[in-house]
Fold this sequence. Notes:
Elements: E1 6-10, H1 14-25, E2 29-34, E3 47-50, H2 52-59, H3 64-69, E4 72-73, E5 76-81, E6 86-91, H4 93-99, E7 104-107, H5 108-119, E8 124-126, E9 130-135, E10 140-144, E11 149-152, E12 154-157, H6 164-169, E13 178-190, E14 201-206, E15 211-217, E16 222-230, H7 231-234, H8 244-251, H9 259-264, E17 272-278, E18 286-287, E19 290-292, H10 307-322, H11 330-358, H12 364-390
Parallel strand pairs: 1-2, 1-12, 2-8, 5-14, 12-19
Antiparallel strand pairs: 3-7, 4-7, 5-6, 9-10, 10-11, 13-16, 13-17, 14-15, 15-16, 18-19
Helix pairs in contact: 1-5, 1-10, 2-10, 10-11
Amino acid sequence: MATIRKALVIGAGIGGLTTAAGLLRQGIETEVFEARRSPGLLLTGGGFMLWHNAFLALRRIGLDEAVAADSVRMRFHEFRSDTGRRLARWHLDGPTERCGAPACALRRSSLHTVLTEAVGEHRMRLGSRLTGYTEDGDGVTAHFADGSSARGDVLIGADGLRSTVRAEMRRGFEPPPRYAGYTAWQAITRLPGETLVPTGTFFNLWGRGGLRFLYCRLNEKEVYWDAITSDRASAGIDTVRRGRRDALAAAYRRWPDPVGRIIASTEEEAILPVAIHDRPPRGGWAHGRVVLVGDAAHPMTLNLSQGAGQAIESGVALAAVLGRTRPADVPRALRAFEESRASRAADMVTTSWRIGTLGLVHSAPLCRLRDLMMYAFFDSVARGQSYGLMLDGRLERGPVPPAGAAVGAVPGGTG
């Protein structure tokens, strides 16, 4: 059976490059178009967690070992309060052994480098800003701001939260992304020392006043951290007169070690504030010969650390579908792909949003109640729900994950 000949991928982020790598593995000619002009701009971003399900998906396109080689395996996920009290501690070795894939912390640039090498820079067209597309019964043509165009059997929009492909697909009738009510201040700092931040543990701290703090070691010299501040808390963080580092140090001054030392060790310019958004789950990823993946299709907040993981899963699943699709059957195949992924992605988006609302609690009594709930249930019920959502067997059932997912789950971290 003759499969499609050429695919056009718009966006060279994690979702776009994973999809492209999967398509190339299927023997499909693929071009990736990226609006940014400099390769260095594609390697920005801090660190994040990549959970077992992401490595299982990467294994299907032969990239799991390369990504793991530049990562730090996490053996524990520890929840604490801002008084230093341990609320829960998940042992990750058991799930790692049972599913045959690790949970790891890594630099975003490390994952991007592996994916870029798998695709090949010669297949990436930088400085190509999409302005629109046209399609017909035989294919789809992408149009770019410099007057150039490209034609393929399918066009894949992997151009992020504010996707041009998504807006074009919906003919401009698209509400803006949903703001979550908090900001993540992300950074990587040079901080050697196993005593201060031990390798292999992801720390997830929940505080009063709308503050959270996440951190883990990326290697023997570097630590990734993420200060999450609600809008109400951010109103008191004066970055104009004090600068980002000093303002955050003041906001977290009463938190236990090593939070203050982590912030103090960080270079001012390394701290990047990111306003957190998602989109409520909504269908319509596929229309004709055009389909969305990653944040263009299902952007989510950082609370499950599944943004990258779900982009990877979608990219791998889409490549598998197209690898057995004839050119004339592309529209039908894309609709089948959406049906296979929509429920799982929607569960992730919804659950992650709900978790984020727990961090918006400000009053001390409600925070104590939240901490008590975490202490009572996170090592048992919540852990089971989280793994039920993350590892429900879809990646072991064949090339296209079926619909449906558990709805539980609890905080995972960044990603």
